[in-house]
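Fold this sequence, please.
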Amino acid sequence: MTYAFSITFWKQATRVEVYSLQIFLTSIIIFSLISILINHLKSETIKNKQWYFTAVMIGLAFSNHMMTLYLLPATVYLFFLINRFEKQSFYLFIRLFLISFSIAFFFYLLMMFRAQSNPEFTFMNEPRSFPALIDYVTREIL
């Protein structure tokens, strides 16, 4: 409730910028993680669909903004808290990681290919090559 009714949340959510979509995706990820935790505490079986949905949302959030990095420690901790350190859970974790990474990587590649088509309106330091894309993602050049 504190997160939902905080002033900062609503100020960022009502601006027309990157942050409104990022707050929406972060809210979906947090809601998904809380529902997974509630299902675990109720001793219900947690379906892999919930983890796959969370992985897709994390991939979309990474393609929007790198602020999603702050959610990863809690997500990984919750995953291994619920699934334990077993061989099968490591395979599931690798699949979830690959799903998130491939979604984010696809959108960044799409940005690079779009920048190569010489659009009329461009931003500074747009990624036209793969090394420039790596610099763009790691925020090496601002």
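The chain has a mean pLDDT of 85. The helical segments are 7-13, 18-41, 48-64, 72-83, 87-115, 130-137.
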